[in-house]
Each structure stands twice: as C-alpha cells, then as structure tokens.
Amino acid sequence: MNLILLGPPGAGKGTQAKKMVEKLGIPQISTGDILRAAVKEGTAMGIEAKKYMDAGKLVPDEVVIGIIRDRIKEADCAKGFILDGFPRTVAQAEALDEMLKGMGQDIDHVISIEVPDSALLERLTGRRMCSCGASYHIMFNKPKQEGICDLCGGKLYHRDDDKEEAITERLVNYHRQTAPLIDFYTKKGKVRPIPGTGSVDDIFAAIMDAVEG
Length: 213
What we know:
By secondary structure, the protein is of the alpha/beta class. The chain has a domain at 2-26 and 79-116 and 169-212: P-loop containing nucleotide triphosphate hydrolases (Rossmann fold, 3-Layer(aba) Sandwich), CATH 3.40.50. It has eight helices and seven strands; from the N terminus they run βαβαααβαβαββαβα. It has helices at residues 13-24, 31-41, 44-54, 61-72, 90-102, 117-125, 164-187, 200-212, and strands at 2-6, 28-30, 81-84, 109-114, 127-129, 135-137, 191-195. The strands form two sheets. A five-stranded parallel sheet has the order 2-3-1-4-7, with helices on both faces. Strands 5-6 form a two-stranded antiparallel sheet. α3 (44-54) runs antiparallel to α4.
C-alpha cells in the first residue's frame, strides 16, 4: 500500500506515521531523512543533491524524485511506503506519478489530517521547551512547577518558531502550498480527509478505516 501523509504543522503527523508503520509494516519515507542519508552514503543522486545543498540552493525535483525512486526500490518497501514531506507541489506530484508509473506502481491513498487553524495555534503556541530536550504544554502537558522542567529543574522557554506570528505564517504557507495538491489528488479520487481533533487513537482508527475500508 503506497500512501502520502499530509497535514499542517501541529496536526500530529509524526505520531500517526509511527502508528501506521507499526500496524501496516511499511516504512515512513521522510524526504529530509532520505536526502541526508543519500548524501552521507555518497550515492549518485546523493552526490548530485550535495552540489545544490552546498551552494545553499533547493535540490531540484528530478534529483529528489531520483532519491525517492532509489529508496522505494529497497526491500523494506516491497509492501508499500508512507511518503511524508513529499510531494509539496503539483509539479512534484506529477513527477512522482510518472516515476511510479515507470515502476508499475501508483499512490493508493492520500491521507489528509485536517485540524482547524485555531486548534493548531492553541497546540503550538502552548509548547514550552527545556534546554535538556524535554517538552511541555501549558494546557495538555503541564510541568509540576510552572516554568520549571520536571527532569532537570531548568527554566522552560518559548521557542521563537512556536510564537503566534511565526505559526500563523507557517499555516498560511502550508495552505497556499497544499491546497492545489489536495485538488490534484481529489480529482484522482485519492484524498481521504481525516479529522485531526480528538484522541490519538480515534484519529488513528479513522486513518485505518480510510485505507483498509
């Protein structure tokens, strides 16, 4: 089963992807991770990608597609894969379709985890971090003592990219970028909208119903 996982920042994609990997026995393919791995391993596509990365440029779609093709050919993708972070544009979606067609494959479902912006703002702006790596939330995961880390006693801080202005900007960019992609896959009958509010298990059950039903 070949899946694409879409969702705005804070929608819980990472949590759901882990559960999907366990349940379906297929790997999550994060484009950032496989790009770094290809560069580290010095594959032909990795060497090509490194040229652009070293120059501070975006890696072209055809190189990213080549790296994804190499990854999909690996043994653990025999039963399918979950693409996370790609495609981001209609041009990338078209290139992905062509590449998969050449391999005799296709995308089965596009899982779109949908959460109202107001709920995302509440989730993301409430996050507090500690320099030891611990993470808290002022509503959903409070420390025992306000502003103090339970683990190391360090002072909690509010990351700049968790502040309302930064998150609003990220959401605007996400909607601008993703709306055409949703439209592209809706026309192909592949989009499965999943309400991203409720418990983690409820959301996961809805995803499973969509892909196995």
